[in-house]
Queue: 3 jobs
Job 1
Amino acid sequence: MATMTEAPWRLQPAPGETQHDLQQRRDRAYFAWQLADTEVFWRRLSGAAIDFAGARVLELGCGHGALSADAAAKGAARVLGIDLDDQRIAFAQQSVPAADPDRAHVMAFRCVDIAAIEGEACFDIVLCKDTFEHITDLPGVVAEVHRLLRPGGLFVIGTSPLYYSPFGDHGRYLGSRIPWLGALMPEPLLFRLASARHRTTISSAADVGLNKMTPARFRGLFAPHEWNVRMLRYNAGDKPLLRVLSVLRRLRVLEPLCTVSIYAVLVRR
C-alpha cells in the first residue's frame, strides 16, 4: 500500500514497465490509499450517525470509487459514483465491483456531470469527500444535490484543505508546499510563476482546479429554508497545528486563513 511519503501519483516506473502498466499500478495504489483514508473521513464525522442500511447513495466526485465501495460495505442498497475524470471512472468500473463480487450488483460508476442525472428525490444520501474545494459552480451543484435528495436525505461533506489555509493551494501552482501561498502572494505574480512552471496560461485559481472556498462561502451555500445543519465541524483532526489554528480562527479576520477543513452533514428540508 502507498504511504503518505510515497504518494501514489508519484510512483516511479519499474524497469521495463510501460506507461500503461505504471498508470494501472498508480491507480491500484491510489484506490488502496483512499480506501484506508475513508476511516479518517468517518472519524472526522464521528457522531453524525449515518445509517447506510438499505440507502440509495450518490457519491459526488467518487474518483477511484473507494468511498462508494465503503458505502456498499456498510449496507447501502444502491450506490452510484460519479466523476468527471474518465480515467478514474474506468478504473472504478473495472476494478471496484470485481474486488467485491458479492456487492457488485449494488455499485455503478459513471463519468457524468450531476446535472445530467435525471429524476428527483431519488437518493437518501449524497457523499462528497475531498471534492467540494474543486467544484467551480458550487451553487449549481448544491441545487442539483437538493433536487436529487429526498426530503430528510443527507448531504455528507468533507472538504480540505481550504484555499486560504496553510497549504490550500494543494501544491498546484508551484509544486511545493509553501504555507499560505494563495493568500500571501499577489495573484499576478503567483499566476505568472505558475504559468511558467506549467508552460501554459494560468490566470485564475480555477485554471488549477481550485475554487477559493472559505468558511463563510460554504455557510452561504445552504439556505435555512432548504437545509438543516445536523453537524458542522471545522479543523477536524488531532494534529497540534489544527488545535492552534482552531483557536486563531475564532477571530473573524483570521477565519479564512486558519480554517483547514470543513466536515458537515446537511439535511434536505
Note: The radius of gyration is 19 Å.
Job 2
Amino acid sequence: MVYTIVRNCVKLWLHIRFRVRIDGIENIPREGGCILAMNHTSNYDSLLVGTHTPRKMYIMAKEELFHKRFFAWLITEMGAFPVKRGQADLKSLKYTLKLIQDGGLFSIFIEGTRSQNGEMQEAKKGIGFIVSKSKAPVVPVYIHGAKRGWFQPAGVVFGPPVQLEDGIKHEEAATHIKEAIEKLAAAQ
C-alpha cells in the first residue's frame, strides 16, 4: 500500500517537473529475474526508472541514505537496500543474487556513482559479477535529461535484453553492458 501511494505521487510529481518520455517498456520481462543496468547523472534517475517499470524495482543505495530512521523505512518500502561503497559488500551481493533468483527486478547504476559531466564513466566490474553469477537477462537502460530545469524533456529508454555468454569475464561483461547503454544514448 505504501509502495503504491508513494510511487503514484512521485510519478505525478515527475510528470509535472519534466516532460517525461518513456520508450521500450515492453523490453522489461513481465516475470522472472532481470537486471536493469543504468547510467547515472542525477538524483532523479532511480525515480524516473522505478515509477515507470511494470513491477516493483529493487535497487542498491549507498548506506549513508539509511541513517535517518523514517527515510530508511521509506526507501526500503520503495525497494532500496543498503550497500557499502568502495568495498566488496558480500551481504548486499548475496541479497541481490537471491532477489534475482526469486524473480525480482533488480536495477543498478553500472558506474557506481553519478557522472558529474553527464558523460558515461567506466562500468564497475560488480555488474559483471552479478550478471555472471545470476545468469539473468540484462536490460540496458539509458536515462536522459534529469539534470535539466523545470518543464524540460527527460526520459528513460529501455533497450532489448542482453544475454551474455557463460564464462565471460566480469570486466568484459561490464564493458559490453556499458556499450549497450551507449548505443541507446546515441540513438536519441
Note: The mean pLDDT is 92.
Job 3
Amino acid sequence: MGAAPAEMSPATLMVDLIISLDGYASAEGWPGWWGLEGPEYLAWLGQESAKEYTFLLGANTYRLMYGMSAQAAADRSGFSEEEGASLTGLSAVPKFVFSSSLHAPLDWPNSTLVTGDAVEAVRELKRTQRGPLSTLGSISLARSLLAAGLVDRFRLVIFPVITGATGRERIYNGYPDVRLEMVQSRTFDGRLQLLEYVPTVLTGPPGTRKQ
C-alpha cells in the first residue's frame, strides 16, 4: 500500500503597496514612483519579479499594468532597462484578475478572470495554490483581503514625499484597526524605506474586550 500524499501547505498572501509618507498611492501631476525610484530599488524590483509569485489584481490595476507592459514590450524608450524588464516580465507571471466589468479571455498572457466574490475566491486560492500570492496595486482589493483576515504579510515601500494637495488614492481609508509586527526593514538609495509586517486585524482598541 503506497504512502499517503503529503498535505499541501496553504499559500501565503502578501499585500504589497507603494505609498507616500502621508498615505497616498499616487499624486496628480507627479511622475511614477514620485520620480524617486533609484538603481537599488529598481534592482530589488527585478529580483522580486523573478520570484514565483501569483499576482492578484483588480480591473483598474489590470488595465494600467497591462498597458504599461505592452508599451514596454513594443518600445522601451520610455523606460529604464530595469523598468522595461520588470514590466515585460509580468506577462509570464500567473495573475488572477477580480472584476465584474472585464470579459474573458483576457488579453494579457497568464491572466485568469474571476467574476465572483474576491474574498471567497482568494480564501480558496490560499487553500489550494502552490507558492506565494501577492497583490499588485489594487487598493480596494487589498483592503477587503486585509479586513477578512486573509493577509499574512503587509509590505510597504514608503517614498519621502507629502502630497497633501495633489495626492490621489488614499490607501488607509476604510481600513479596520490593525496591529503590525515588523519582520523586515530596508532602505533603498538612501531615501526609500521598505517596511514589512505581520498584520493582526483588531475588533477594537488594545486593552478592550473587543480587541
Note: The first strand starts at residue 13 and ends at 20.
